[in-house]
Write a structure and sequence with these properties.
Layout (H helix, E strand, L loop, with lengths): L3 H29 L2 H4 L5 H10 L8 H17 L1 E4 L6 H15 L13 E5 L3 E3 L4 E3 L1 E4 L4 E5 H9 L7 H14 L5 H17 L2 H10 L10 H14 L1 H7 L1 H11 L9
Parallel strand pairs: 1-2, 2-6
Antiparallel strand pairs: 3-4, 5-6
The structure holds zinc ion (ZN).
Length: about 270
C-alpha cells in the first residue's frame, strides 16, 4: 500500500512536470510562432481584388509586389476599422483601404501611418457634428481618425480612371499630416514639394493650363491641401496623362511620395 507521503510526492512531481511542459510550450510559442508569423498571407483572390481596383499595382515588379503584400497584411492587422452596422462587404473595404495606404507610402519607411489610429466607415454620406454638414469622407488630425462613406469609397474604386478616389484623397491628407513637420529628410523633401506646389499655384501660366485642360477637378482650388489631395488622386489613377500634361507637378509629387514606380515611362 502506498503511503500518503508517496501519493503526495508523485502528485507534486506531476505538477512540476506539467508546469515545465507549459513553460516549454509558452517559450516555443513566443519564439517560433510570433504574432507577425501568424498573420495570414493575402489570398490569390485578395491579390486579384487589389489588381482590379488599384491601377498602379500592375506597375509593380514581382519583388515589389511581395513587399507590398506583406505591408498590406500588417497595415490591416494594426488599424482599427469600425463599421456602422449597416455596412456590408467589410473585408473587401478593409482590404482596399489597406492596399491604398500601402500604395501611397510605398516609398516611405512609415507605411503604418502613425497619424491614423481609427477608421470609421458609414454606409453612405453622413452628418458630421464637427462641421454641421453632410460628408462623404474626412480626416481629423486631432482625433487621428479617417471617416468614409462606404458608398462613395466603392464608387471611387469602381471607375479606375476618372481621377476621383475618396480613399486616395483622404489618405493623402493623413499622409501629408504624418510626414510634415518631422525632423527627418523625408519631411524636408515633402515640405520643399509643398512650397513648389504653392509657387505653381500662383503662376498664371500654370493656372491657364489647368483651366484649359480641366484635368484637375475644381475642388482642388479650395486650398493647397485640397489641391495636393486632388492631385494625388490623379497621380494614382492616370499617371501617364498626368506626366504628359503636367510633367513638373508630376515630378514634384513623385519626389514628395518617393514613388519610384512612377517612372518617366509611366
Ligand atoms: Zn480633402
Amino acid at each position: 500500500m502506498p503511503s500518503v507521503v508517496d501519493v503526495f510526492g508523485v502528485t507534486a512531481l506531476l505538477a512540476i512536470f506539467g508546469y515545465f511542459l507549459y513553460i516549454v510550450y509558452y517559450t516555443l510559442d513566443l519564439f517560433f510562432l510570433n504574432p507577425f508569423a501568424r498573420l495570414p498571407r493575402l489570398t490569390e483572390h485578395e491579390k486579384a481584388t487589389i489588381a482590379a481596383n488599384l491601377p498602379l499595382y500592375r506597375n509593380l515588379s514581382v519583388r515589389k509586389r511581395k513587399r507590398f503584400h506583406k505591408r498590406v497584411v500588417r497595415f490591416r492587422s494594426r488599424k482599427k476599422v469600425i463599421f456602422h452596422k449597416e455596412v456590408t462587404d467589410r473585408d473587401h473595404i478593409t482590404l482596399l483601404l489597406s492596399a491604398t495606404a500601402v500604395m501611397l507610402t510605398l516609398g516611405m519607411a512609415d507605411f503604418l501611418i502613425l497619424s491614423i489610429k481609427k477608421i470609421l466607415v458609414y454606409p453612405a454620406a453622413y452628418y458630421s457634428p464637427l462641421t454641421k454638414q453632410d460628408h462623404n469622407g474626412e480626416y481629423h488630425p486631432g482625433l487621428k481618425t479617417l471617416v468614409f462613406s462606404a458608398e462613395h469609397l466603392m464608387e471611387g474604386f469602381r471607375i479606375g480612371n476618372d481621377n476621383m478616389n475618396l480613399a486616395v484623397h483622404e489618405f493623402a491628407h493623413a499622409i501629408s499630416f504624418n510626414v510634415a513637420n518631422k525632423l527627418n529628410v523625408r519631411s524636408y523633401i515633402f515640405l520643399i514639394g509643398m512650397r513648389q506646389i504653392k509657387r505653381l499655384l500662383s503662376d498664371s501660366n500654370f493656372n491657364n493650363r489647368m483651366d484649359q485642360s480641366a484635368y484637375f477637378r475644381s475642388y482642388g482650388r479650395t486650398n493647397i491641401h485640397e489641391f495636393f489631395a486632388v492631385s494625388v488622386e490623379n497621380l494614382m489613377e492616370t499617371p501617364g496623362a498626368f506626366r504628359r500634361q503636367f510633367p513638373k507637378l508630376f515630378g514634384i509629387l513623385r519626389r514628395m511620395l518617393n514613388l519610384k514606380i512612377l517612372s518617366d515611362k509611366t
